[in-house]
Amino acid sequence: MSQDAGTATPEGHVAEGVRRRDFINIAAVSAAGVGGAATLIPLISQMSASADVLAASSTEIDISQIQPGQAIKGVFRKQPVFIRNLTPAEVAEANKVDVGSLRDPQTLKERTKEGKENWLITMGVCTHLGCVPQGAAEGEVKGEFGGYFCPCHGSHYDTAARIRKGPAPKNLLVPEYEFTSDTVVKIG
Ligand code: FES
Fold first, then answer.
1. Has residue 8 been placed in a domain?
2. Is the CB of 168 under 6 A from ligand 1?
3. What amino acid positions are annotated as catalytic residues?
């Protein structure tokens, strides 16, 4: 895409570079609360929230707009968090892996909530040296295993955000969270 950073297309899509750079602001919308003005349009809005909101110990995120195959980047305790709605194919891909062969052995089931295996919620912080992996925004590289890719030193995570290749020692961390409704998740 050759548009300048900050330029939105007539369809309302924002240039890829903007999405990457401004996701904190985007996520702040979801952190600002559920309902009211917090309607979440993944990766488009550029509103910001006050520092006290970002520093809140828990974050509620409206996940109703996240379609299967989509993800959003939120903020939890000032760090990026990925909320991903896995497709049935991505769930199947994660479940067919021989867990014993993994560097950090965990099943998808262990990394998600019962009955909501499609909702993969992890910190967006590479467990190597803390870069933000790619793969949560539309058009971003997802790596060799279809999950996330950390471009800093080449760590590849799979569709359960488990480390599969590269220097990262651990899977992307799953924070404490709960579903407060079918469309709202409370992290922290
Ligand atoms: S920080 Fe991600 S691979 Fe090094």
1. no
2. yes
3. 153
